[in-house]
Amino acid sequence: MKILLGILMMLVLVVFTGGRGREDGARRILSKDTMGWPASFGFGRTAAAREIEVLDISVRPDGKGLPAGSGTAGAGRGIYLIKCAACHGKTGVEGPFMRLMGAMDDTTKAKTIGNYWPYATTLFDYTRRAMPYGAPGSLSADEVYSLTAYLLYANKIIDSTVVMDARSLPAVVMPAKKYYVPDDRRGGREVK
């Protein structure tokens, strides 16, 4: 690790010295903040508010941040077969990657949507950001709502007729929620 850090610092020095002597560049780079990093690396720019807004797609457990749109389990099944089955299997249990389906009484001990996830909104958020594996972030809001509805239905959490949207999704109570306890400790080192 120390060797890698040393190589990285040498590269930074070469980039920032612009051909000047090592000492001159080192003096400029080593005006560091309290964590030991340079005050500025000298490249990039401050992001515009609109650029940040486009990337700020976080969804909280209470549903804040959910976009407009809606979807159903029926529509989600079709999307799942086209965009998800290659990695998760035709029914969500075959793989080769993470198993998605499994109720609370599942004896395989696999962590699935139905027996592990505490919030349905987390399922939406994760799917929206990271799926499908080869093209993360490429799904529309309606597709993500539909996939979320299908996955919740396939895990026996909602009925097939439920329309998922920004209002109905946060109202879904996940079976594993009761096993999660908020960290409300005070004093000392808090983990949030």
Commentary on this structure:
The chain is an all-alpha fold. The chain has two domains: 1-44, no CATH class; 62-179, Cytochrome c-like domain (Cytochrome Bc1 Complex, Chain D, domain 2, Orthogonal Bundle). The chain has seven helices and two strands. It has a two-stranded antiparallel ribbon with strand order 1-2. α1 (2-17) packs across α2 (22-29) and α6 (120-130) crosses α7 (141-154). The two termini are 29 Å apart. The model has no long low-confidence stretch (mean pLDDT 84).
What's the CATH architecture of the largest domain? Orthogonal Bundle
Summed up, the helix count is 7
Number of extended strands:
2
N→C terminal distance: 29 Å
The CATH topology of the largest domain is given as Cytochrome Bc1 Complex, Chain D, domain 2
Largest sheet, in brief, is: 2 strands, antiparallel
Structural domains: how many: 2
CATH class of the largest domain reads Mainly Alpha
In short:
This protein is mainly α and 192 residues long. Helix content is 37%, strand content 2%.
Descriptive terms for the model:
single chain, Cytochrome Bc1 Complex, Chain D, domain 2, mainly alpha, 2 strands, two-stranded antiparallel sheet, globular, 192 residues
